[in-house]
Amino acid sequence: MADPKANSEISFAGTFASSAFAACFAELCTIPLDTAKVRLQLQKKVNTEEEAGVPKYRGMLDTIATIAREEGLIALWKGVIPGLHRQFLYGGLRIGLYEPVKAFFVGSEYVGDVSLFQKILAALITGALAIAVANPTDLVKVRLQAEGNLLPGLPRRYSGALNAYYTIMKQEGLAGLWTGIGPNIARNAIINAAELASYDQVKETILKIPGFTDSVFTHLLAGLGAGFFAVCIGSPVDVVKSRMMGDSIYKSTLDCFIRTLKTEGPFAFYKGFLPNFGRLGIWNVIMFLTLEQAKKFFVTAV
Prior knowledge:
With 302 residues, the chain is mainly alpha-helical. The protein has helices spanning 4-8, 12-42, 60-71, 80-96, 98-106, 116-145, 161-172, 181-207, 216-246, 253-264, 273-301. The protein has a single domain, classed as Alpha/alpha barrel (Mitochondrial carrier fold), CATH 1.50.40.10. Helix content is 71%, strand content 0%. Helix 2 (12-42) packs antiparallel against helix 11 (273-301) and helix 9 (216-246) packs across helix 10 (253-264). The radius of gyration is 20 Å and the shape is globular.
């Protein structure tokens, strides 16, 4: 991603296709961790009304084990269909548009290192644009993942991804598919900037170190760095986004933020941090490793 010459040999369609494929593959591998993260984020603070005062989920591994035990192993992949829908659209657009937008800021004839500020700005824009298109897929994924939080005996709201799209439109209108669009744009613009700009910057920095080449090990290190920065920066807006999409009690993004802060304190915004980092760290490594290899196919195919 840091080599402009390599990227110039790939058309937008080729970049979109390789990005969408890499994002979908990473999603398929890591969605159990994402399901655990969403359940932990939606879990409210323990109170005296809860049975024995003990939260249902305690940590990533316990959450995964509890879901598998109570709902079956397949429940860990709840939301995988809209998740793949999301990654195809969002992953393809945010990465596919990144190089063109970055080139717009520096000029198509520019040769040399692009500043970190320009990388961040380009990634903020592409992340916001991509999720504005893909928000319905994100909403349905979160709604399906949140199904396990319903009380025992209550009927499930949705029978599957297509039914969820239809039911949401029928009950909440077409605009209902864009529920949580505010925090979602904020979250994905910020995380996209943290992922793409940091991957770009870390990779560029590593390649300047003697002995390092544009290899799988370099991609792995840069992917881990991208995942770490993304979680540290994006976790608060990610929690707000998950809660707004998973629960209709909040009036607005600000209302969700204030109510969460008042009732659970500032650490609530880092609920699910470990599964989030586990997921995003692994996700970024898989995605960027796959992306770098997929781009080679389209370069040789040109």
